[in-house]
Amino acid sequence: MKNILICSLIGIGLAACVTTQDDSLSQYEREHFSTEKNPGLQTVPHKDLDTIPKGYTERQIRIAIGNPKARFVKNNGRTVILEYFKKEHEGLPHLIHHCMILRDGYYRESMTSKFSCNRVN
Fold this sequence. Notes:
Layout: H1 2-34, E1 41-45, H2 58-66, E2 71-75, E3 79-89, E4 92-103, E5 106-113
Antiparallel strand pairs: 1-2, 2-3, 3-4, 4-5
Keywords: Lipoprotein
């Protein structure tokens, strides 16, 4: 009886984890796709690179040209996030994105999972 109770609790815990992950993934995707309608963010498709405001470096523009699906998402003039894309990792869908964080004229590049670049505003 004790084993059944423990297994049931473990099963409920695992189900909660899976549900939380699925919900956060959906929420993350919704937030990403809603950026185009968010007046606080500026989205620039790669075909409109000439319209990118001054302050972007030549290297950043070359990165965008090299990735035909890239988009610049500008938030408060400090953070530039390139388009998210889905990639399978060990058979599971995983959101990866390339972000550049602008701070006082400096930037760094990183390829990160959805859990680590979401809060760099």
